[in-house]
Amino acid sequence: MRVWIYLSVFAALVLMTFLELMIFAQPLPRAVIDMSIVGLAGGKALLIALFFQHLAYEPKSLSALAILGIASVVAFLVLSVYSIIGITFR
Questions:
Q1: If we measure between CA atoms, which residue out of 88, 73, 85, 89 comes closest to residue 34?
Q2: CB 85 within 8 A of CB 31
Q3: Which of 73 and 40 is assigned the larger pLDDT?
Q4: d(Cα 59, Cα 49) in Å, to the nearest integer?
Q5: How confident is the model over 45-67, as pLDDT tens digits?
Q6: pLDDT in tens, 1-44
Q7: Closest Cα to residue 47, out of 76, 10, 74, 75?
Q8: Cα gap 45→42, rounded to integer Å
Q9: How many whole angstroms separate alpha carbon 79 and alpha carbon 82?
C-alpha cells in the first residue's frame, strides 16, 4: 500500500477533529452540536477501521460485518444523545 493513502487518511482524521472542535465552539443548539460530533466520530471510526485496521482490503463479507458493528455503535450513540437531550420515542 502506498504511503500517500495513509497520509491522506491521517489528514482527513485531523480535519474531522478540527471540525469537531470548531462545531463545539459555535453557538448552535445542543442537539445540532451533539449529532454533528457523533456523525464526525462515526466517520473517523469508519476511516480507522477501513484503512488502519486494513478492512478495506479484506473480503467484502468480513468488511460488511465490521461496518455493521460500527454502524450499530453509532446508532447506540445517537440514541444516547437523544436520551441525554430529552427526546422521547413513542
A1: 85
A2: yes
A3: 40
A4: 14
A5: 888 878 887 777 778 777 778 77
A6: 589 999 999 999 999 999 999 998 999 988 788 888 888 988 89
A7: 10
A8: 5
A9: 5
Which residue blocks in 1-90 are alpha helix, DSSP H?
A: 3-25, 30-47, 60-85
In 3D, which of 38, 45, 46, 25 has the Cα closest to residue 85? 38
Distance between CA atoms of 21 and 12, rounded to whole angstroms?
A: 14
Cell numbers linked to 57:
482490503
**Distance of CA 81 to CAs 41, 47, 67, 78, Å?**
13, 22, 21, 5
